[in-house]
Fold this sequence. Notes:
Subcellular location: Secreted, Extracellular space, Apoplast
Radius of gyration: 24 Å
Number of helices: 6
InterPro entries: Cu-oxidase-like_N (IPR011707), Cu-oxidase_2nd (IPR001117), Cu-oxidase_C (IPR011706), Cu-oxidase_fam (IPR045087), Cu_oxidase_CS (IPR033138), Cu_oxidase_Cu_BS (IPR002355), Cupredoxin (IPR008972), CuRO_1_LCC (IPR034288)
Shape: globular
Strand content: 35-45%
Distance between the termini: 66 Å
GO molecular function: copper ion binding; hydroquinone:oxygen oxidoreductase activity
CATH class of the largest domain: Mainly Beta
Number of strands: 32
Number of domains: 3
CATH superfamily of the largest domain: Cupredoxins -  blue copper proteins
EC number: 1.10.3.2
Keywords: Apoplast, Copper, Glycoprotein, Lignin degradation, Metal-binding, Oxidoreductase, Repeat, Secreted, Signal
Strand order of the largest sheet: 10-9-12-17-14-15
Amino acid sequence: xxxxxxxxxxxxxxxxxxxxLLLANAASAKIHYHNFVIQATPVKRLCxxxxxxxxxxxxxxxxxxxxxxxxxxxxVVNKARYNVTIHWHGVRQMRTGWADGPEFxxxxxxxxxxxxxxxxxxQGQEGTLWWHAHSSWLRATVYGALIIHPKExxxxxxxxxxxxxxxxxxxxxxxxxxxxxxxxxxxGAAPNVSDAYTINGQPGDLYKCSSxxxxxxxxDSGETxxxxxxNAALNQQLFFSVANHKLTVVGADASYVKPFTTxxxxxxxxxTTDVLITADQxxxxxxxxxxxxxxxQGNPFDNTTTTAILEYKTASCSSNCVKTxxxxxxxxxxxxxxxxxxxxxxxxxxxxxxxxxxxxxxxFFTVGLGLNNCPRGARxxxxxxxxxxxFTASMNNVxxxxxxxxxxxxxxxxxxxxxxxxxxxxxxxVKFDYTGNxxxxxxxxxxxxxxxxxxxxxxxxVVLQGTSIFTAENHxxxxxxxxxxxxxxxxxxxxxxxxxxxxxxxxxxxxNTASVPVKGWAVIRFVADNPGVWLMHCHLDVHxxxxxxxAFIVENGVTQLESLEAPPVDLPVC
Length: 574
């Protein structure tokens, strides 16, 4: 008996310690309550005041700060005249797909005058994410930062910075963005490009009527600060640089990375990059600037430059600096794909990671644009794309159509027939020279609401292959509900015989949005461990509207913890 007790006591002590640790973790996790009122607010930019859709009258919207393990409860009240939803970009939403936010995918929209409460827990994510509207083009102005600090008592894997500053890169139209997209939808042409880029909502010194409100980022000589850079632009990849200062990249999409130093960042819409910056230059004022990386040859784009000011606050500077013009950075040329590639291929996880090596689902998705012939009986004013066509886009030649009577998640969970089919092709229906001269017979995709079904726990590889249909360009592809490893990228057509040798299965970066290179490909892997319906789409909003999207259904696993939660009682109805 004594012998048994001597074994039992250490065991019971071990379990007791485990329970205490679990309770301590639960006790340190907090619930954060927020109210988001979606409303029209007068906002003046570029000399003109617009009735802009905002959250709580703020542009950009409020920054939410939480710790890893915390829960967010955000009550969204729609006082605007448009339908709206909010997406928590990059949040894993484990089993809480009802809170993910894309309109008609995981919920019906919040109608004017109605409300909906998003409830979800941050699990195992640290760094910078963001939130934005996921309904038509509302995210042009409805967005904000979501900052996830380490759990209480834990620290960053780098020295604690003196200050932390979100740097939100945005895009501004000197018009109502909803009118811009509605006109393009009616005409079938490409929408007008933006009139300015912004940093934290301000265009900066290089635009009319803007210099008095330019964003200022204060620093003290010698200190190291953390910049949380977010590309919230609607339709444009952006280069970002700070004059005379090096940037040390330490995180991206709320995952830490192996630190590397660079003078320029390239972010696709949806992507975030955390960088350390040391104030090691002469005390002065330095521009931080962003402008387009425009990879689509011959396509119109906004070629302006937004600026903010990194301002040294030392005594020797305070009286003189304001009189001098800030130092300007050198930014890459608009079409500098070599610089964009050199940057994206530097990303690595900090240590060896568990990349799925045996693959259950080996998928190959083409991503690109297309042109629809003018429908029979349509007027020429509705077919103002090239040569009397209408712009479209597709994945594997299927142009994605959102339902309108039910959300896909509701239809899946309730078994409602006729809303979607599960025959999204695992490979292109026709093989062709994807990045070469593509036959015009392949420029017109089929339309459909086709999903691809994954078993719970399936190990998935997706080759994302860009095409040169109409024009080739870099596509930022975002997967909802998941992070994935980017194990390789390259140019030309993906060749399974030779390109698999380039796979990084040791320390690839973990991201939620992958930049598929212009006339090239990227390969991602993930484990389907989060049940629900998850949208995968190009984060250039003009392309998602044209149909450059698909969705995965991930089936429930065996246990309750492997199954989608029941829908909340206040889920909006269509």
